[in-house]
Amino acid sequence: MFTRNRKLSGRILHVFKTSPFLSTIQFSTSHFPFLHLSSSRYDQTRCQHFLHPSFCPVLKPVRDFSSDSIEKMELKTVLDVLEQLAPLSLAESWDNVGLLVEPSKPRPIKTILLTNDLTGEVMDEAETMRCDLIVSYHPPLFRPIKRLLQKDWKQRLAVRAIEAGIAIFSPHTTWDSVEGGVNDWLVGGMGSGKVSVLMPAVSSEAQKHRLEFSCLNEEELNSLLKRLWKIEGSEHFQSSRISSSLTAVVQVLLSHPLVSSSLNITQVQQPPLLGCGQGRLSVLDEPVSVSTALQKMKKHLGLAHVRLALGEQQTLESEVKTVAVCAGSGASVLQGAKADLYITGEMSHHEVLDAVARGTSVILSDHSNSERGFLSVFRERLVMRLGDAVTIAISQKDRDPLQVI
Ligand SMILES: [Zn+2]
């Protein structure tokens, strides 16, 4: 006998009934595997792992780019490698990453120039060396452009790249986020420690919804599920049109009085991508003094000077056990992080005062000085992936616009 309080259980791919009369349906926008959810076993089964293999860079050549294939190295091949080393899905939503300029006439990629910023001087350098691809960490094209004129320096650079047939790629926050990327490199300057991510990344590819409802009986559930399957034309409720398919499914469910009154929709939270995200916190294996921390970071960043704000009650001899870092302009990521020391490129006067009042010391290196050193780390990874087929250079003209006189 079926009652309203007893529920059928099922999910859309293979309807099963682990706990009678509760129906659970799950949607996904990607081809990631479904989590196997049911009302009674949700907690035990929700931890299915879905890390994409490309999130774990493996530093070995993906292909044998032997010398006879030098002439054949295509832009797409290089782009594939770049995206394997730091998937574009890791970028912040506001960012503008990936291929930004693509020449109309494809040509083999023989020379790649790595730079933190694409300035006029760096473009001069790229043209002189007959560069085929510029990898600029900061995206030289960021805001929407309505025209390409010579009076705007960024538009001018875009025109020069197009005329010279040079492609431009920008990784930006994908490098910040990826495990082993800019922020891991930055925190590594303080020595070994137990490192965690301040703002963990979550998968942007899979949005899942869990729908639960009650049915009068098994026949009604089966009838309902048949109608739902027809919406997508298959038993797989996978669709890139998540909003439209979800709406259509909900409309069907709402047409049944009992189902309608019991329907519960929840968005399934994605697990964080291990090791990826913005900012890093390190609990140092060997605590150091503030003074030693300064020396370590100057050496790591290759700088003669950095700026220091001592936290309240702190001295140069105070002990630093925990360090929070964020490359570039890190205040929004570091805000609230409990650490003895913040390391970033730049913070505003008031953001520094806030940190100091909490007893946290701050080291500022100027924006791009906290990022640029990673170029040589990344160059090694590219060389390992592309072999001798491509010349990979780091810009000699790229530098932070600020200098201490
Ligand atoms: Zn930056």
TrEMBL record:
GO terms for biological process: regulation of DNA-templated transcription. GO terms for cellular component: mitochondrion; nucleus. One of its GO terms (molecular function) is metal ion binding. InterPro entries: DUF34/NIF3, DUF34/NIF3_animal, DUF34/NIF3_sf. The keyword Phosphoprotein applies. Keywords: Acetylation, Cytoplasm, Metal-binding, Nucleus, Phosphoprotein. A divalent metal cation binds at H138, D176, H367, E371. It is found in: Cytoplasm; Nucleus. Pfam families: DUF34_NIF3 (PF01784). Homodimer. Interacts with COPS2. Interacts with THOC7. May function as a transcriptional corepressor through its interaction with COPS2, negatively regulating the expression of genes involved in neuronal differentiation. Belongs to the GTP cyclohydrolase I type 2/NIF3 family. This is NIF3-like protein 1. It comes from Danionella cerebrum.
